């Protein structure tokens, strides 16, 4: 049997962690992005621009296409070029459809904002144009003509992603009221989940078309920032709302029923590993 061939298109933070994990397990991994000098061995680098009409190099057939590109700005043209046009381009450029396409999407497709739980069956009526573009991307995946699984990540944090920590270090905490639930997932769990789904598929287990990927504990953002301030020994001087979508709670029950066990089931475990690596 040949090695599992994986193409990671948009091989950034999550893609690289995934690529390294899969390569360690014996897969043949190619990572496509514009700045390939950032790709560590043994991920095989492929320089390409998903947003440009003639931006892709010749692509070899793969068993798994993981599309995990992220737009660098919220400009709608950039968003469309990366999430919609880029995905179409890679699918067209492959000499044969992959055994399965895995697309990373976002919980930004939900507009719920009354602290309600959302899962794979909840309505998606995004109130932002970027959310609608992500839904379009998901539709392209499901129409791709090969088995496809979409994984909607909540807010990703981990090594090198210091936005929230920087705010707390500056003495800022969200107000306790009104409550605003935040949902998050550690970068290593994002990679772990994608690897888990590929392993299930390789073993002939059925995969769902959609998984919500967020840790066990949606938590008010004020509580997360308060806890971080304690860990960092920072005195809070400013209470300021942190803008991050509607207040909802993301359920990971389907993912856990598939057998995935979170390495960082809540923000305390995950941030502890960031603060004390
Ligand atoms: N950030 C979050 O909290 C969050 C939440 C939910 C979902 N997600 C999704 O999770 C996935 C993984 O995110 P991440 O954190 O790994 O993102 P990331 O570290 O920013 O990586 C994205 C990769 O896409 C590549 N890319 C962007 N534009 C490209 C283009 N035109 N052509 C080729 N490659 C391009 C970038 O490389 P180059 O710039 O070198 O090309 C980069 O390697 C993404 O789909 C993202 O939308 C993120």
Report on the structure:
It contains eight helices and 15 strands. α1 crosses α5 (187-202) and α2 (76-93) runs parallel beside α3 (129-142). The protein has helices at residues 13-24, 76-93, 129-142, 163-169, 187-202, 221-232, 253-257, 267-275; strands at residues 5-9, 28-33, 44-47, 64-67, 100-106, 114-118, 148-153, 155-157, 172-173, 181-182, 184-186, 210-213, 219-220, 238-239, 247-250. It is globular. The chain has a single domain (5-161, 184-217, 249-264), classed as Rossmann fold, CATH 3.40.50.720. The strands form five sheets. It has a seven-stranded parallel sheet with strand order 3-2-1-4-5-7-12, sandwiched between helices. Strands 6-15 form a two-stranded parallel ribbon. It starts with a strand and ends with a helix. The chain is α/β, with parallel strands linked by helices and 277 residues long. Residues 10-15, 33-35, 48-51, 68-70, 72, 82, 104, 106, 153, 155-156 line the site of NADP nicotinamide-adenine-dinucleotide phosphate.
